[in-house]
Amino acid sequence: MIYMARLVLFLFVAVECSGCTPHPISISPNLTSLNYKNDQSRIAKSVAYYIPEETRRLKVITAGGGGDSVSYTPYKDLETGIYQALSNVFSRVYVTTDTTERDFLRSDPAIKEWTLG
Questions:
Q1: Which of 6, 37, 72, 90 qualifies as a FRET site for 14, CA 20 to 30 Å off?
Q2: Lowest mean pLDDT: which of 7-21, 33-47, 49-63, 84-98?
């Protein structure tokens, strides 16, 4: 009887602990499918995008099936694909670390005049 109770308790603990840790996955896009080589069709404009650091580090944990959990960082995983997609359309792409950062605009020879507000 005590043996059976120990066995049931052991199995219960083993089942409960087996699905506790989220398994990390990556949702990064296939960059070769985003690679576009025709420079002639790019828009001769500069574009910048900003992803706040706390958003970039955001970790999502969701059910993965079979009692498991999966975790991923959607903004960090997709950022390279966003950059590549913008680079396919615009001639210059900048990643800003701050919404007030304007040094990249001052250094861009395509921008003749920039008024700071």
A1: 72
A2: 7-21
